[in-house]
Design brief:
- By secondary structure, the chain is mainly alpha-helical.
- The protein has one domain.
- The protein is built from eight helices and no strands.
- About 15% of the residues are buried.
- The model has no long low-confidence stretch (mean pLDDT about 90).
- Keywords: Membrane, Transmembrane, Transmembrane helix.
- InterPro entries: DUF2569 (IPR019690).
Length: about 170
């Protein structure tokens, strides 16, 4: 019990995780505002997704819409993760792991789908490779940390529902 209390708290390696989340939400929100929003606001989306125009490809509309929506979902998820982190909520490790796995699936899948439009370009350009490397670092370092760290187990305990056994013992 004493060791658990000493390990409890948002410090140690956990600080790096929350810094990574703040950077992730900032970068993804910036991408939405600097890249995706102008495509929809300046008429580029119409030019790319209207049959008969010079740059038309039937994949543009689903790619651009799904990328924007998924990035909005990631921003919301990062914000939720920061909330769970600050409140030391018991769901933080699970939601964090699910988010990292989702990102690790989305990045190569998105790169592959985009390669169907950009047939002469490499699937993994420099930016995609950096994003995938960041995600793989999180997948291979931070996910195992979430699963085995005593600090994580001691810290993220708030709002945990009581088990049925605890209710039975209290009611007896």
């Amino acid at each position: 019990m004493q060791e658990s209390q000493e390990l409890r708290g948002l410090r140690g390696w956990l600080v790096l995780i929350v810094i990574g989340l703040v950077i992730s939400i900032s970068r993804t929100a910036y991408s939405l505002l600097a890249v995706h929003y102008p495509i929809f606001a300046d008429g580029s989306f119409t030019l790319l997704s209207t049959p008969g125009t010079e740059l038309y490809n039937p994949l543009w509309a689903p790619i651009l819409v799904s990328e924007a929506l998924i990035n909005v979902l990631f921003v919301a998820t990062y914000a939720y993760l920061i909330y769970l982190f600050i409140t030391e909520h018991y769901l933080f490790p699970k939601v964090y792991i699910a988010t990292v796995i989702a990102s690790a699936v989305f990045i190569p899948l998105d790169a592959w789908v985009c390669s169907l439009v950009f047939v002469d370009e490499p699937i993994f350009d420099a930016n995609t490779t950096k994003e995938l490397a960041r995600t793989l670092i999180a997948l291979f370092i931070w996910v195992p940390y979430m699963l085995v760290s005593r600090r994580v187990k001691a810290t993220f305990v708030m709002h945990k529902p009581q088990s049925a056994d605890a209710h039975t013992a209290v009611g007896s």
